[in-house]
Amino acid sequence: MNSDPRFGNEAATTPANKSHTMIVIDDHPLFRKGVADLLTLDDSLTLVGDASSGQEGLKLAAEKNPDLILLDLHMKGMDGLETLKAMKELDIDSRVIILTVSDAEEDVVAALRLGADGYLLKDMEPEDTLEQLHTAAKGRLVISDKLTELIARALRGEPQPKGPGEAGLTDREQQILKLIADGLSNKLIARKLDISEGTVKVHVKHLLKKLNLRSRVEAAVWVVNKRKGL
């Protein structure tokens, strides 16, 4: 786990320009350094630590409570999916973005179903990566463009209702479903609808069950497909 002074000092306070804090969990030292170098180009994103394994990452996430966590999938020992699952079980509130080389359907679907807040590929251009991180920091879902069709294709093989009405969604659930499709996090939905985040989570759980979907991202893709008539 990295705990050198450049991380510790910045972790203690939040910059006046409301910089978003971030940690990176990846077992490749060169990649972690690359992320650190990239973030020096953007003072609105502050790296407060890094970890070389899932176990270290869990401890660091609990200690730093960052706004964003960049998580690799294929790591030795505790891999990214196991780490993500553990974070959800520990109720770590950070937004977890998978950043990996894998565009395999099973990896993408598994990560999103475990509750990842985004899935980005490491071959993205640096400026595109920064843009996606800004979007994620605002509470929105982020998916690499080349993966949206893959996700839609993965969903087509599963039985789904024809529409929210047929699924028996309440007016509030339909309202929340639309906001999920617009990319809003539970926290932003709660703020927009003037209800508690806990209430939003209950509604999301119910609507996913009614729609036979397993994650917010699947729900968002499903709504987009319906809008396109697919």
Beta strand count: 6
The profile of the biggest β sheet is: 6 strands, parallel
Count of alpha and pi helical runs? 11
Mean pLDDT: 84
Overall geometry = globular
Sequence of secondary-structure elements: HEHEHEHEHEHEHHHHH
**Integer-rounded radius of gyration:** 18 Å
User: Considering the protein shown, what is the CATH homologous superfamily of the largest domain?
Assistant: Response regulator
CATH architectural name of the largest domain: 3-Layer(aba) Sandwich
CATH topology of the largest domain: Rossmann fold
Strand order of the largest sheet: 2-1-3-4-5-6
| Amino- and carboxy-terminal Cα gap | 46 Å
Could you explain how this protein is built, in words?
The structure is a single chain. The chain is α/β, with parallel strands linked by helices and 230 residues long. The chain folds into 2 domains: 5-152, Response regulator (Rossmann fold); 158-227, Winged helix-like DNA-binding domain superfamily/Winged helix DNA-binding domain (Arc Repressor Mutant, subunit A). 50% of the residues lie in helices and 13% in strands. A 6-stranded parallel β-sheet has the order 2-1-3-4-5-6, sandwiched between helices. Helix 4 links the parallel strand 3 and strand 4 (95-100). Helix 3 packs parallel to helix 4 (80-89), helix 7 (148-156) packs across helix 11 and helix 8 (171-181) crosses helix 11. The longest helix is centred in the last third of the chain and has 15 residues, at 197-211. The relative contact order is 0.10. Mean pLDDT is 84; it is low at 3-16.
